[in-house]
């Protein structure tokens, strides 16, 4: 199932608060990255970041309670992990580009990830990740560099460290925005971008299709 543009709403939570009627207005949420890190010192967090984290926690809590469906990616997995009482750490960063993801036994049996290849390439770029699967979550995907790549809570809350929502071209455009953000040496942008554009990332978008198939009203 493909959800057309007319059925999608894009909301920039960095700039605008979560609408009060969000859970009545939307049947589900896909949360992308952000310019922030969960592990940023509390004293350095702006009002916008604190509000954003609070809004994301509301979405995650609602999905964990089966009041909505949500798929959190990258920065979002940190917010969910912390909400669940897990630890977010900078011990498992991954360089910008494609990495290999492997499904766990639970991942192979999962309603959304189960139809993906056992091993597949996905795009990542992050400074932080979950130290371990948080309480109440089921590990669905892993790799050596960052062991917690995807997990599920209940039946309607999913979180991935990798980016299922981005094409290689869109990823290089995001790289340009964060060129000086410390994710990679700025001088290496062209080399890394060329490597990203050559990457074959056919499986991650199928996760989004499965999410829409299962949860779109």
Automatic annotation (TrEMBL):
InterPro entries: ChyE-like, Class_I_gatase-like, GATASE. Residues 26-174 form the Glutamine amidotransferase domain. One of its GO terms (cellular component) is cytosol. This is GMP synthase. It comes from Microbacterium hatanonis.
